[in-house]
Design a protein that fits this description.
- With 342 residues, this protein is α+β, with helices and mostly antiparallel strands.
- It folds into two domains: 6-202, Fructose-1,6-Bisphosphatase, subunit A, domain 1 (Fructose-1,6-Bisphosphatase, Chain A, domain 1, 2-Layer Sandwich); 213-341, 3-Layer(aba) Sandwich (D-Maltodextrin-Binding Protein, domain 2).
- It is built from eight helices and 17 strands.
- An eight-stranded mixed β-sheet has the order 4-3-5-6-7-8-9-10, sandwiched between helices.
- Strand 3 (94-99) and strand 4 (106-107) form a beta hairpin.
- The radius of gyration is 19 Å and the shape is globular.
- The two termini are 38 Å apart.
- The structure holds 6-O-phosphono-alpha-D-fructofuranose (P6P).
- Residues 125-126, 128, 217, 253-255, 283-284 line the site of 6-O-phosphono-alpha-D-fructofuranose.
């Protein structure tokens, strides 16, 4: 297992490139998967520059189009999507890509070599926060393309989260961070804006099993199911209540920002099934939000559930399907699962 103290990380100045080469030498990843992660990191750098310019580059505001979810696209949603497509389609490592911003998968054009991996992403998660300068992010997930598939369509992507080969997210905040798992732990790299390198700054991250902090959009309280309502009421009852301790609440409105806080200091994130819209079993998308975040959280010792089943064991039925999400500190997620079962 890759274990370094923060001091050693700083001293060794391990860049993402060096980390990936070492992982390839250790047999954790292939050369093409190393190329994939490298190209995604370059796209993340380019998105970080675009997000950082904000109004100065005329990239704020609506794009004047809707995505497959029927949500108005922000200019930066479209820009980030284009950056990821252009960064990856020529490399010969991918068979196809799928995105929150595209109805159908983008199959690698015949003019480029085709590879064995499938890349899915939410190019700019939390984009409703861009115009108010709150952290947004990029989430991505990597699968193997099934053998022998020639005419790739969304069915090739419909694999459970346990089949992910890698997953990560970028947070475009005060610093631009790239958080990555290759299935052997979770590491955070910070973008050095002076030279464009991503430098290892938190190695082998672990989520504390207990917490006093929950993240949920409390304005939905009237639509929550009983187990969620019970959990939040007990937390709000504080020291004199059944939990015997006071809780704090945070809700950024950008999943990447909430998940990164939880990865760093613990917590539980809930976007649960609610009765607001019976057609929507949850708000967040399985393939390119819930699954990659679940992979990262589990790799850091946390848990990720719909409340009724492990997110990474869901057999997908549609590329843009939504699922309830409860993830973070293991003991809190297990408590919520127990409440759903009782
Ligand atoms: P609400 C952003 O649109 C997003 O998909 C997640 O990043 C975020 O956690 C959630 O939706 C916020 O949803 O309903 O609070 O605006």
């Amino acid at each position: 297992m890759f274990r370094l103290t923060a001091t050693e990380c700083k001293m060794r100045k391990i860049t993402l490139s060096r980390y990936l080469i070492e992982q390839q030498h250790q047999g954790t990843i292939s050369g093409d998967l190393r190329l994939l992660i490298t190209l995604v990191s370059r796209a993340v750098h380019a998105i970080s520059v675009a997000v950082g310019k904000g109004a100065l580059a005329g990239v704020l505001g609506e794009a004047g189009s809707d995505n497959v979810q029927g949500e108005a696209q922000k200019k930066l949603d479209v820009i980030a999507n284009e950056i990821l497509l252009e960064a990856n389609e020529w490399g010969g490592h991918l068979a196809a890509m799928a995105s929150e911003e595209m109805d159908d998968p983008h199959v690698i054009p015949n003019r480029y070599p085709r590879g064995e991996y499938l890349l899915m992403f939410d190019p700019l998660d939390g984009s409703s926060n861009i115009d108010v300068n709150i952290s947004v992010g990029t989430i991505f997930s990597v699968l193997q393309c099934p053998e022998g598939v020639v005419d790739i369509d969304e069915k090739a992507f419909l694999q459970p989260g346990t089949r992910q080969l890698a997953a990560g997210y970028a947070v475009y905040g005060a610093a631009t961070l790239l958080v990555l798992t290759l299935g052997n732990g979770v590491n955070t790299f910070t973008l050095d804006r002076e030279n464009g390198n991503f430098v290892l700054t938190q190695a082998n991250m672990r989520i504390p099993e207990d917490t006093k902090e929950f993240a949920i959009n409390a304005s939905n309280i009237r639509w929550w199911e009983a187990p969620v309502r019970r959990y939040i009421d007990e937390a709000n009852a504080g020291k004199s209540g059944p939990r015997g301790k006071d809780f704090n609440m945070r809700w950024v409105g950008s999943m990447v920002a909430d998940v990164h806080r939880i990865l760093t200091r613990g917590g539980v994130f809930l976007y649960p099934k609610d009765t607001k819209d019976s057609d929507k079993p949850g708000k967040l998308r399985l393939m390119y939000e819930a699954n990659p975040m679940a992979f990262i959280v589990e790799q850091a010792g946390g848990a990720a559930s719909t409340g009724r089943e492990r997110i990474m064991e869901i057999e997908p039925t549609a590329l843009h399907q939504r699922v309830p999400v409860i993830l973070g500190s293991r003991n809190e997620v297990e408590r919520l699962v127990a409440y759903h079962a009782s």
